[in-house]
Design goal:
Order of helices and strands: EEEHEEEEH
Strand order of the largest sheet: 6-5-4-3-7
Radius of gyration: 23 Å
Number of helices: 2
Number of strands: 7
Distance between the termini: 67 Å
């Protein structure tokens, strides 16, 4: 049967779920990675043994793909975008920011 929910495959940092957009090495699980290429796919089934069934964008299907041959294309929804680094020198500050900083220093 199809396992529902998220599966954390051994050695994988990102959760792979049914419906996840991924890239996978076509036929690497059965023949090894040499000479294989990465292709976009969707996970169609999470197997109890930790492998995944995929349907590739070109219509090809593959069963029991080992997780090390799958890259998750989706970012975790809880991950926030990296914050911009604050300006390090006064030359990087706008006139408003310079005036605001001066007012803050005066009112301390």
């Amino acid at each position: 049967g199809v396992l529902r929910g998220k599966i954390r495959a051994r050695g994988c940092r990102l959760m792979l779920t049914c419906g996840s957009r991924v890239k996978a090495r076509y036929l690497a699980s059965s023949g090894g990675p040499v000479g294989t290429k990465w292709f976009p796919a969707i996970i169609t089934k999470c197997n109890r043994d930790g492998t995944f069934d995929l349907t590739y964008d070109d219509g090809d299907k593959e069963q029991c793909v080992i997780p090390k041959f799958i890259k998750n294309l989706e970012t975790p929804s809880s991950a926030a975008p990296p914050a911009a680094a604050p300006p390090q020198t006064s030359s990087e500050l706008s006139a408003y920011e310079l005036e605001r900083d001066a007012n803050i220093r005066e009112n301390k």
